[in-house]
Design brief:
The complex is a heterodimer. By secondary structure, chain A is an alpha+beta fold. Chain A has four helices and five strands; from the N terminus they run βαβαβααββ. The chains are: A alpha+beta, B alpha+beta.
Amino acid sequence: MVYLTRIEHFNAAHRLFNPNWTLDKNESVFGKCANKNWHGHNFELAVTIKGMPDPDTGFIFDAKKLSVIIRDRVVDKLDHRNLNLDVDFLRDKMCSIENLVLGIWKEIAPALPAFVKLHCIKLIETPHINVEYYGE
Amino acid sequence: MANKVAVHRKEHFNAAHRLANPTWTDAENARVFGKCALPHYHGHNYELIVKVSGFPDPATGYVIDMKLLSDLIQREIVERFDHRNLNLDTLEFASLNPTAENIAIVIFDLLRPHLENKLDLQIRLYETPRNFVEYPA
């Protein structure tokens, strides 16, 4: 099995805040991440597909086409946006990167051709924090 | 011959911002600043490299104690800007467009008074891995 990863990036604002909790509880659980005026990150998004190379092209799937799918389905919706306010698939959800990676999987998986298997979505929030989802 | 040495300290802060000139129309801001002017803000992991140059002290071997430099940057810069909205939460950008250029100048002006005159200071600020500014140029 060969794994192909395409990396894209987007810059976005967000905050971690549970509207059912008091301000004090939000600050005690989320700390600075609860700032009501948001903060932001340069997010890096790594989408990994798996398969065996096609004998004619040598590709599992054309990485340029994969980039177009990622941009159309995810990056164009998230880049230079406010994840809490502007993103349809995060509405009414806590805006953590855990929920973001789940939402991104659901956006990308149906957009891939049937012969392409999505293996992993990795989302890097900072050099110290990232999440991975394998579709389980 | 005395040896001049530059020491660098790297820190980071994560912040939201948007770019806009308040005296322009929305259309003009969108034309000039593009997506950076979107109204709900966006954000960056800013990486800050503070360069201090001078001659190592003969007694310590230091140009500057890096722990003191780190504490200074944390106190004057990171605590002001980290996990903040630069446009809404900071005095420095209440009426100054928070471009990387202006942020670098503000950071320089915040640190300069706390460093001895014999030391040179330069700020390098990465807004993204591909875009960074330096001040003074």
